[in-house]
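pinging the channel bc i need a second pair of eyes. not urgent but kinda urgent?? the chain im working w is below, pasted from the shared doc
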Amino acid sequence: MNEIGPIRDVYDAVADPTRRKLLRLLADAEELPLNELTIHFQMGRTAVSKHLAILKDAGLVTNRKVGRETRYRLNPAPLREIEDWVSFYRKFWSERMVLLNQILQEE
């Protein structure tokens, strides 16, 4: 835990389908206010805000105040950790498929 609060794990943050949908919505727009994000879910503003807070704790979302409105923006940099992890397994399976193809061609 740091002085500001706990830092959430990126994997934990993206494990929830609601948070993945929020990330997708923010990826498709430069910046969105809470009320525009909330209309995409069957839950209230408070629940959406809690999901956004988890994403923010993981560094995946930033926010700024514009008058009384809070606007949210995607910060994709932490997703690099997941991409690196997935790319290892992509390479692993690609190599296995090449080997399987060679074995099948020999038979």
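so The mean pLDDT is 89. and The radius of gyration is 19 Å. — does that match what u expected or am i reading it wrong
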